[in-house]
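tool=predict chain=A
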Amino acid sequence: MDIKEQLQIIFREVFKDATLEINPEMTAHHVAHWDSISHLVMISRVEEVFGIKLKLKELMKLKNVGDLLNLLVEKTIA
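tool=predict ok
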């Protein structure tokens, strides 16, 4: 399973939408129920699944799902 597929599963679980399809341009404005609490849950789940810790500085730079995917590629390959 690749990074995007794993992230897809996380988004579907966190936002409770089995049909949710992520794409690089997606932001919180595109997803129902994506609020500050669900955002924290999603980040926590990403860290757990990928076995990484995301720094606040890294999180502040994220503007969309594509940025998160790129960060995950960097962190998991390094």
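The chain has a mean pLDDT of 96. The longest helix spans residues 36-50.
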